[in-house]
Amino acid sequence: MDSDHDPSHRRPRGDERRRRRESHGDQDPERRRRRESRGERAVYENGGRQRKGHRATDSQGDLLPPPRRTRHQSDTEQESPSPRKARHSRRNSTTDGSGSRSRNSAPLSLDALAKLDKTNAKKAGGWGSYDYDEEYLREVRKKEKTLEKDRVKQERAEKKKELEEQEARRRAAESDAAMHEAKARKRREERRKAAELKKKSQTDDELERKRSAHTEDEREQRRHKHESKHRASEDEERRERRRQEKQHRTEQKKRRVISGPLAEEGGIDDDDEYRYMMEKRGGAGSGPPTVYSEEELARKKKKKRIIIGVVSVLILLAIIIPVAVMLSNKSSDDSDSGGGSVAGGSVTPDKSNLDDKDRNSVPEADRGGILDPWSWYDTEDFNVTYTDETVGGLPIIGLYSSWDDDVQANPSVPKLSDPFKYGKMPIRGVNVGGWLNLEPFITPSFFSQYGSKDNIIDEWTLMNKLGSAKTNTMEKHYSSFITKRTFAEIRAAGMDHVRFPFGYWIVQTYDDDVYVPQVAWRYLLRGIEYCRQNGLRVNLDLHGAPGSQNGWNHSGRQGVIGWLNGTNGDLNAQRTLDIHHKLSVFFAQPRYQNVVTMYGLVNEPRNVELDTTKVIQWTQKAITQIRSDGIKGIIVFGDGFMGLDNWQGQLQGNDNLLLDVHQYVIFNTDQIKLKHRAKLNFACEGWTQQSRRSMDTTTGFGPTMCGEWSQADTDCTQYINNVNTGTRWEGTLHSTSSTASVLAPQCPLQSAQCSCDAANADPKDYSDEYRRWLYQFAIGQMDAFEAGWGWFYWTWETERATQWSYRRGREAGILPDKAYERDWTCPDNGIQGLDEFDGLAENY
Questions:
Q1: pLDDT reported for residue 153
Q2: Phi/psi of residue 617, nearest 5 degrees
Q3: Pairing mode, if any, of strands 94-95 and 101-102?
Q4: Which intervals carry biased composition (Basic and acidic residues) (predicted)?
Q5: Residue 63 carries which DSSP code?
Q6: Residue 652, by phi and psi: left (phi above 0), alpha (psi -120 to 50) or beta?
Q7: Over the stretch 506-542, which tens digit does the pLDDT of each residue have?
Q8: Which terminus of the chain is more solvent-facing, meaning fewer CB atoms within 10 Å of its CB: N or C?
Q9: What is the dihedral of CA 782, 783, 784, 787, to 10 degrees?
Q10: Residue-level pLDDT at 41
């Protein structure tokens, strides 16, 4: 048996302790007496620990069942004070180095108590002599539970406090970021206001210069030069500021700390970087921002530039490839036919004639303007010797001093040096429309690149859109759309006249005009010289007057009629007279008397929307002024859509005055719905009779010609009815005016079968019947208009509309190869003599 469990071994130890206690004396006799009265058998050690007496064990040291309690035993005898309570009291205290106990130490856990009990039981001689008090255990657990609740509560309080501190830090960061953003917005707003003030100041300065400018063109030109230099100086200052700002930003970026995720996207600006870093610092569990070295930052920037470059190339390819395809098709056509290039042709003209000239011959005041050949896009066939000489206020630079009029266009007409017998010889001519002033259906590429929201519908809105690029864009068009080769081909086609449509801005601009001023002037003069070289006579046509004489896009500005109408009607009427004064003085020079034989007043004034009396009065005033300026040739005025018969008796007493009418079957719903054979008969019979009645002064004005016509029998050509409006043929013509809208098909079938596909098809896909009909329809109109003074076809060149291009129609075989040699004519017996077109469908 283990001696630790032998009671005989323990008693001496207890007796020895008792003796030691008694030797020191009991400090509290009364307390000792009370314990003895309860019959306790206890041993006290150090005045603090109380232990119950040993219980009996078996031979193995296991506890024997406790003795049964008798009814005579008192509660005090049966239950002695629990030693666990004493031990717990002791465990809840600690001793410092001197052996004194501290009452503020933390309680022991259940595991610690169990370990301590085991140790004490071993010291006491085994569990058999050590009482494991269940009541005490429950008490400890209860207290532990309370302590655990307190601990959890404390942890939650600490966590809540931590979250509140984090929220406070986040809000502070957001507040700092917001303050920084507000400052950044304020800086941007200040810069924007400064830019607006600067722009307004520049605008005010420009308006003031316009108001104070001299009426003479020489001063006007010098003012433009001065403004160009001023703008160049401002551009240089802006470039210097941008260079300094870029250098400053580069230095800042070398020092800054960039947040990782944004840096991976290619970098961020200073404001975004600051906001991002502040947000990251305010978030829970975020680490410090990523610090990139200059080399890493450079690599990321290089990667970003590469990505941007690739994307840009893809976008450009998506734009360029379709355009290139169109240009290649166009170039293929032109390579065989010799026609003009598409708008803004890419062929760079030859400027070698500047090689032997002195750049310093151009005064500083004229550098970069219309008097400076070194600033021109095209110098081919221009005299590039500097001169500021003008005639009628218009510059002569570009003209050579000698010319030759001993040229004959074809055997059917006289040489330029000999008079053309107007009224006896038919005029067979063509327009060069869409060149010196734009018309959307002739050069749709200028307009189709924009969406409906841009509302680019005429030259005015296009120039507004192009902004600073407009001059370069338009001069490339002037240089390439109609060329020297054009006039040689016109001569080869059997023509003898060319009509030159142009806008008033070729001479002068006013107020807020956005047109390119005067650049087209020297191209007009060069075109006239090309006509001279081919024996072709010229009809000048003011196609766009100040304020717009008809509100149509080919006048320059679509919309309200401001010529002889509205608030500025009289002002624009006078401005038009001023334009004519300059033009007539210039073209009254001897060099133009044989070549510029026809002089037009205003193209298609819309008399039905104007005060007809005022129009006639203005016309007479213009005729008188032009004659006094020295013009001796034919003066042309338009019928104004009044009907030829209504001009009988008007403007009589003026010599060499010619009435101009424009004839089309597609803009009138009664005529467009005629079947093909009826349309041909209308040309041969109807227009022939009109010409003859108008030529007779008893029934009409007198001398009459057709200044515009085509062989188109539908209005299917893109933009022919204005940009993005639809067609009468298919019943899709929309207009801001309900009376002008046509929302039911007007082809002869007047049904859903009406289609524009065949009319807009490539000529090689035309049926033989349709090709034959187009050819006869063209000749029928030539015959009808030659019953008067003759005709001018509209027009020579288009980007793709074959039925409106004499060059393309001649090439396709639907127009005569020689205008004066035709193998068909209108029959004398009217419609009975016309061919049948049984195989020709009426839905195209």
A1: 86
A2: -60, -45
A3: antiparallel
A4: 1-43, 142-182, 191-221, 230-250, 352-366
A5: B
A6: beta
A7: 999 999 999 999 999 999 999 999 999 999 999 999 9
A8: N
A9: 110
A10: 43
Instruction: Please tell me which residue in 273, 459, 489, 708 is annotated as part of the active site.
Output: 708
Tokens of 643: 């009907």
DSSP 281-306: HHSTT--PPPP--HHHHHHHHHHHHH
CATH number of 463's domain: 3.20.20.80
pLDDT at 231: 61
H or E stretch at 397? none
The answer to whether residues 702 and 553 belong to one domain is: yes
Residues 511 and 555 in one domain: yes
Task: Give me the number of domains the chain comprises.
Answer: 3
Give the residue from 668, 400, 441, 414 showing the smallest Cα distance to 553. 441
Taking a C-beta distance cutoff of 8 angstroms, is the pair 26, 37 a contact? Answer: no
Neighbours of 640 (CB within 10 A): 24
Say if 390 falls within a structural domain.
yes
In this predicted structure, the answer to whether residue 270 has a pLDDT above a threshold of 90 is no
Domain identity same for 566 and 625: yes
CB 7 within 8 A of CB 55: no
Q: Within this chain, do residues 788 and 726 fall inside the same structural domain, yes or no? A: yes
Cα distances (Å, whole numbers) of residue 489 to 328, 339, 818: 21, 8, 11
Beta bridge partners of 637: 659
Q: Side chain identity at 516, as an amino acid letter?
A: V
Residue 334 pLDDT exceeds 50: no
Give the model confidence (pLDDT) of 364-404 as tens digits: 999 999 999 999 999 999 999 999 999 999 999 999 999 99
Q: Is the pLDDT of residue 575 over 80?
A: yes
E strand residue ranges, 299-398: 390-391, 394-395
The rounded distance, in Å, linking the Cα atoms of 361 and 677 is 65
413 with 528, same domain: the answer is yes
Is 220 in the active site? no
| Same-domain check for residues 686 and 749 | yes
Structure tokens at 557: 């500005």
CA distance 576 to 584: 12
Q: Is residue 564 part of a domain?
A: yes
- Name the one residue in this structure whose structure tokens are 């010619």: 658
The reply to whether 96 falls in a domain is: no
Q: Which domain holds residue 601?
A: 352-833
Verdict on whether the full-model pTM lies above 0.70: no
- 30-72 pLDDT, tens digit per residue, is 555 555 444 444 443 444 444 444 444 444 445 545 544 444 4
Which of 273, 459, 475, 604 does the annotation list as catalytic?
Answer: 604
Which ranges constitute the DSSP H helices of 213-269? 217-255, 260-264
The two structure tokens encoding residue 811: 């090439």
In this structure, are 483 and 517 located in the same domain? Answer: yes
User: Which pLDDT does position 88 carry in this prediction?
Assistant: 44
Q: Is the omega angle on the peptide bond into residue 795 within 30 degrees of 0, that is, cis?
A: yes
Rounded to an integer, what distance in angstroms lies between the CA atom of residue 279 and that of residue 668? 69
What residue ranges in 328-412 does DSSP mark as E strands? 390-391, 394-395
Residue 286: CB partners within 8 Å, gap ≥ 6?
280
| 604 noted as active-site residue | yes
Q: Is the pLDDT of residue 638 over 50?
A: yes
| Residue type (1 letter), 246 | K
Question: Nearest-CA neighbor of 636 among 529, 500, 525?
Answer: 500
Answer whether residue 8 is part of any domain.
yes
